[in-house]
Amino acid sequence: MKLVGGYPFFLIRDGLPFSYPALEQSIKTEVLIIGGGISGALLGYHLVNAGVNCVVVDSRTIGLGSTCASTSLLQYEIDVPLSVLKDKVGLQEAVAAYKLSEEAISKLAAIDKYIGCGEFEYKKSLYHATGRKEYKALKKEFEIREQNGFKVNWLEEDIKSQFGFSAPGAILSDTAAQTDAYKFTHALHQYSKQKGLQVYDRTEVVDIDYQDAVIVATTAAGHKIQARHIVYANGYEAVNYIDKKIVEIHSTYAVASEQCPADTAFWQDEVLIWNTDDPYLYMRTTKDRRILVGGRDERFSDKYKLDKTIRSKSKQLKNDFEKIFPAISFKPEFSWTGAFVTTKDGLPFIGSIKDKPNSYFALGFGGNGITFSLVAAETITDLITTGINKYGKLFSFERV
């Protein structure tokens, strides 16, 4: 499956910072992780720190799947608002999912600092209504978040004075951040390799045999990987191993501007900005003074003529930005598309499936998959090392 098209900004900026070998012999390990993107990297980090011997394999060069296409906004909000999610899974469970995602942001900050990546930046997040029709639902969303302890403020007339554009209402959240998922992934692997993690790219698993005491994965080159546990962290391609009816694959589009002059006045505090449209528009800045704008999502199709589609979406996103900030010059330089998956309740799938013993899925689906990748890494590490995780049922396959 072709997950990425165009020229993702972070891939162009960072290039190929490290090289990893292809697997050239049969090996044994305690845990095999399929997928070396951000989810697999966080899993490897947590497992080796827990003293577990593990191997990561990826069919592509490391990071060249959806990870390099990520615009790397870190928000605790998922694609389904808390006020809606509570009616799908219950208030206690909905709040728990949001809290876990919120806590993941500070944990990602700590990991970034510990391994010396240097790409994490705390930001606030502005979620604004695009019209009076959306105002009521957004105000309800603010109230339920405030009631459940999230640090949020409600803005109306002060949106214009603080951020330079008008909107009927907005939620300003204290907890949010931005990073570079592609660079972070490589930094995680480099740290974990020093702790014993083995990372192989250009190593495609083509067959998995569940035997009595072990799992044997066979690569396209014919090599065998024998493991006690296997973790599927290959994101959207993992739908090949599960019931495809539980997810929908979409394409999202993004454009990065040229570097803005030093005297360019961005919006206040360069907060993350997104709106109530469906699909929603979102934007952020970068350390080198670029503006990233994303959105214009649609159902995924591998039949698209990507170059043509990306060009038209890039123009639309540029126009979307200029409608909000007409005084800020936006000159597109890099445009790309990436695949993402939605679930019916907006929550990820983390854990095991009955017919696949000693197997786990780390599928941080949705618009804010990086925080759920962290949750998945913690959850699966607990399940492998202790057999217990108190939030396992919240993200289980059995809920649908």
Question: What would you say this structure looks like, in words?
Answer:
This protein has 400 residues and is of the alpha+beta class. The chain has helices at 9-14, 38-49, 66-69, 82-89, 91-115, 132-147, 158-163, 181-194, 306-324, 369-385; strands at 4-6, 27-34, 54-57, 73-75, 121-128, 152-155, 170-178, 198-200, 205-210, 215-219, 224-232, 247-257, 272-275, 282-285, 291-299, 332-343, 349-353, 356-363. A hairpin with a 5-residue loop joins strand 14 and strand 15 (291-299). Helix 5 (91-115) crosses helix 10 (369-385). The two termini are 25 Å apart.
Q: What's this model, at a glance?
A:
The protein folds into two domains: 4-69 and 182-245 and 346-399, FAD/NAD(P)-binding domain (3-Layer(bba) Sandwich), CATH 3.50.50; 123-175 and 248-342, D-Amino Acid Oxidase, subunit A, domain 2 (D-Amino Acid Oxidase, Chain A, domain 2). It is built from ten helices and 18 strands. The protein has helices at 9-14, 38-49, 66-69, 82-89, 91-115, 132-147, 158-163, 181-194, 306-324, 369-385; strands at 4-6, 27-34, 54-57, 73-75, 121-128, 152-155, 170-178, 198-200, 205-210, 215-219, 224-232, 247-257, 272-275, 282-285, 291-299, 332-343, 349-353, 356-363.
Helix count from the secondary structure assignment = 10
What is the CATH first-level class name of the largest domain? Answer: Alpha Beta
In which range does the helix fraction lie? Answer: 25-40%
Q: Class by helix and strand content?
A: alpha+beta
Are there runs of 5+ residues with pLDDT below 50, and where? none
Please identify, by name, the CATH architecture of the largest domain: 3-Layer(bba) Sandwich
Q: What is the global morphology?
A: globular
Q: Superfamily at the CATH H level of the largest domain?
A: FAD/NAD(P)-binding domain
Output the helix-strand order: EHEHEHEHHEHEHEHEEEEEEEEHEEEH
Summarize the main sheet.
10 strands, mixed
Measured distance between first and last alpha carbons: 25 Å
The tally of domains stands at: 2
Number of strands: 18
Q: What is the alpha-carbon Rg in Å? A: 21 Å
CATH topology assignment of the largest domain: FAD/NAD(P)-binding domain
Q: Average pLDDT across residues? A: 92
